[in-house]
Design goal:
The protein has 2 helices and 9 strands; from the N terminus they run H-E-E-E-E-E-H-E-E-E-E. The chain is mainly beta. The radius of gyration is 23 Å and the shape is elongated. About 7% of the residues have low confidence.
Length: 219
């Protein structure tokens, strides 16, 4: 009886158990894209952005880490105001992929496996950090309060990210595309902070590549 029960459990195991995978716990990556500020001035331009990041993976689909950005904001208004901000930012960001909620039984094959792996790479994230602004060229008029502001400043900001990458394909090289909105908690990205002005917001669309390395975990 015991032998029969053991044999039955061995035969059923592939149908009731979840597949496991190994994953590397660290990644180092770089990105490039376009960014645009949406502040008090109505006319803004999309400008170049570069980024670098290092992440720690709690699982293949949950990671936290630091992201550094360097880019430019250009903007103008009909009333002669304009600015050129060469900024740098540092954020701590956590991202969660859809794959974290898609533990499947067994190993799908063919088109089904490809579709599942693509969906696993969809992710969202949020974090907290700072933006250091440096107005390289900006219009000031001491007799006009609407042009008052700081040429150099540091603002706290909350980044919110949506994107997709190839994390579901068990590759050590991860490529992807993301949209990131940054909610500044101050009002100096465009260099102007007159009474009644609104807090600034900037967006970024980035193509990125990461290399995973380090100690190995089991998922």
């Amino acid at each position: 009886m015991k032998k029969t029960f053991t044999l039955a459990m061995v035969m059923l195991l592939p149908f009731v158990s979840f597949s496991q995978r190994n994953f590397y716990r660290y990644s180092l990556g770089f990105g490039a894209g376009l960014t645009k500020n949406q502040g008090d001035l109505p006319n803004s331009s999309s400008k170049d952005l570069i980024s670098a990041n290092m992440d720690y993976f709690f699982s293949p689909y949950i990671q936290s880490g630091l992201e550094i950005q360097s880019g430019k904001f250009y903007g103008a208004a009909p009333d002669s105001r304009f600015y050129q901000n060469h900024f740098k930012s540092l954020f701590f960001v956590t991202r969660v992929h859809a794959g974290q909620f898609m533990r499947q039984r067994g190993y799908p094959i063919g088109a089904k496996a490809v579709i599942q792996n693509i969906v696993k790479g969809i992710y969202g994230g949020a974090g907290l950090g700072v933006i250091a602004s440096n107005q390289k060229n900006i219009f000031r008029d001491m007799n006009n309060a609407s042009t008052y502001g700081a040429n150099k400043s540091t603002d706290a900001a909350i980044p919110v990210t949506l994107g997709i990458d190839n994390s579901g394909f068990d590759s050590r090289i991860i490529t992807g595309i993301s949209y990131q909105g940054h909610f500044a908690l101050g009002d100096q990205l465009d260099g102007y902070s007159p009474a009644g002005s609104k807090r600034d917001f900037y967006s970024a669309v980035t193509l990125s590549v990461k290399f995973r390395f380090g100690t190995v975990g089991v998922y």
